[in-house]
Amino acid sequence: MTPQQIIVRPVITEKASDLQGSDNQYAFEVLRDANKIEIRKAVEMVFGVRVQKVRTMVVRGDVRRVGKYYGRKRFWKKAVVTVHPGDSIDFYGAEGTQ
Fold first, then answer.
1. Which CATH number fits the domain that encloses residue 32?
2. Contact assessment for residue 49 and residue 83, using Cβ atoms and an 8 Å cutoff
3. Regarding beta strands 76-83 and 51-59, do their DSSP bridges make them parallel or antiparallel, or are they unpaired?
4. Residue ranges making up the domain that contains 30
């Protein structure tokens, strides 16, 4: 697996934004097969930061209903990555602009 395949997308929610500001932690959706070591190496290679800690969890899919039919959203894996105090990840590309 390449690092681009392991990291599916960043999770940008209100709670994840609070973690970025206060604890220097970033949340990502990752492949369910990836382990903490692979996630750590992928984040370090793709974003060029030093990773201190990786926490993972499997997010259960919700049950949804359309009319009389029930379905389930997919299960996915979330990784919360703690970055060294001097490093940061810029998801928006706003570092170079004013």
1. 3.30.70.330
2. yes
3. antiparallel
4. 3-83
Per the structure, the count of domains in the chain is: 1
3-class state of residue 25 by DSSP: strand
Helix or strand or coil: residue 5?
Answer: helix
pTM given for the model: 0.86
Rg (alpha carbons) of the chain, rounded to whole number:
15
What does DSSP assign to residue 60?
P
Are the C-beta atoms of residues 96 and 53 closer than 8 Å to each other?
Answer: no
Average pLDDT, the chain: 92
At residue 20, the 3 state secondary structure works out as: helix
Q: Does residue 98 form part of some domain? A: no
Token pair 């692979």 is at which residue? Answer: 38
d(CA 77, CA 60): 9
